[in-house]
Design a protein that fits this description.
Elements (H helix, E strand, L loop, with lengths): L1 H17 L5 H20 L22 E7 L2 E8 L9 H15 L3 E8 L7 H8 L2 H7 L3 H11 L5
Parallel strand pairs: 2-3
Antiparallel strand pairs: 1-2
Helix pairs in contact: 3-4, 3-6
C-alpha cells in the first residue's frame, strides 16, 4: 500500500511539473489573489474627501486589506477592511460610501461587497460598519445631491 501511495504522489508531482495537471486549490488561490489585486487596483485611486491624496497614498487602503472568496460560478465575495487616517475620522463613512460606489461601477464580475473599518482603527467602527453595509442607507445617501457630488469627485479617475 505504501508503494502505491508513494507512486501516486510521484506521478502527481511529475504531472504538475509538466503542466499536464493543475492542482485546483493552487489555481483557485491564485485566481482569488488576482481578483483581490484587480479590486485593489480599482480602489487605490479613490481620492480622500479632504485631501488631494489617494486612499493608497494615505495608506487607508493597501493590497492586504482586500480579500476575495469564491461564492459560486463566477460570483465572488469581496471583503475590504480599510484604515482611516485617525481614530476619530469624521469622513470614514464617506470613504466607505466611495468604496461601495466605485466597486459597484467598475468591477466586471458578479460580486457581493462587505466593507469594514479595520478593527481598532476607529472609535465608532461598529456603527460605521453597519451604515456602509446597509444597501438602503447607501441608496438614500446617493440620492443626496451634495453627497453625490462629493462621492463623484472622490471616485473619478485621474487624468493621465
Amino acid at each position: 500500500m505504501e508503494i502505491v501511495t508513494g507512486l501516486t504522489a510521484t506521478v502527481s508531482k511529475v504531472l504538475q511539473l509538466s503542466g499536464l495537471y493543475v492542482n485546483k486549490n493552487v489555481s483557485g488561490t491564485k485566481n482569488m489573489e488576482e481578483k483581490a489585486l484587480e479590486v485593489y487596483d480599482v480602489i487605490r485611486t479613490i481620492r480622500d474627501p479632504e485631501k488631494p491624496n489617494t486612499l493608497e497614498e494615505l495608506e487607508v487602503v493597501s493590497e492586504k486589506c482586500v480579500e476575495v472568496q469564491e461564492l459560486g460560478d463566477d460570483e465572488y465575495l469581496i471583503i475590504i477592511k480599510f484604515s482611516p487616517t485617525v481614530p476619530h475620522c469624521s469622513l470614514a463613512t464617506l470613504i466607505g460610501l466611495c468604496l461601495q460606489v466605485k466597486l459597484q461601477r467598475c468591477l466586471p464580475f458578479k460580486h457581493k461587497l462587505d466593507i469594514y473599518i479595520a478593527e481598532g482603527t476607529h472609535s465608532t467602527e461598529e456603527d460605521i460598519n453597519k451604515q456602509i453595509n446597509d444597501k438602503e442607507r447607501v441608496a438614500a445617501a446617493m440620492e443626496n445631491p451634495n453627497l453625490q457630488e462629493i462621492v463623484e469627485q472622490c471616485v473619478i479617475e485621474p487624468d493621465d
